Amino acid sequence: MFRRVQWNKVTLVGVGLLGGSLGLALKRRRLARHVEGYVRRAASIKECQKFKAADHATQDLALAVADADLVILCTPLAQMRPLVRQMLPALKRGAIVTDVGSVKASVVKELEALVAKAGAHFIGSHPMAGGEKTGVSAARADLFENAVCVVTPTPKSNRAALRQVERFWKAVGSRLLTLTPQAHDELVSRSSHLPYLLAATLANYVLNLTHSKHQATLCATGFRDTTRIASGSPEMWRDIALANRAAIRVALDEFVRDLQRVQSLLRQNDADELMRWFDTAKQRRDEWCAQASATLPE
Asked: Is the separation of the CB atoms in 178 and 148 below 8 Å?
């Protein structure tokens, strides 16, 4: 059993699904003496209080991060750089800043140097957890339990800060994986970003109002499950798509080639090859499901 991490003050910059879930996990596991939340809207302060995601919430960023030992950026990617610039004067020396962003190379490149100007340390993180529902009302204290969290240090990373970030993610129940920012972005472009783009494209195509009025009626559980993540935050996914556009374009090109192969098999009426193609997909997914299930706690 790992040693419990104790922080005097943890600040969540953004208290939505991920930030709110971190706040609930911190409080349930008693990992911080004080959890502070920074929010953009006055209404969000009441929501934080209602769902008990933070001990205190404020729209004052400097107040939120003052004296914080750990600051976690839980906002859409495009907001991170301007928020870090704004918080720099209030960051205490030696503080640790991390994030939950789904893209790492550009975020780490921008924020590592910025945070260092305040005598603080930035370590990139990406917990592979979330859902299509947004907002603190969807937050769960167990969201990160047994989820993989990728930590993306660089040669410039402070070793002590890196160990603290690793301990933090373990303390909220995550399993750690260390990758370079570039390797992370290539892998998630296929496993995370591409599925969202496919779900969004499918939802836009199938539910287009130019189709028959009966089209939506014939969309059942298969369509619902396949397009579930299309209900995610458009702002968040816009930022992800633009920030990781080079890797996503490669993944899309590869996927289109695979689709064209299927189209060719259909054109040729090739039953045997279609069967092999479907069988390979089933085997690969079944093996992945079995492996994923084996890592779940009893």
From this structure: no
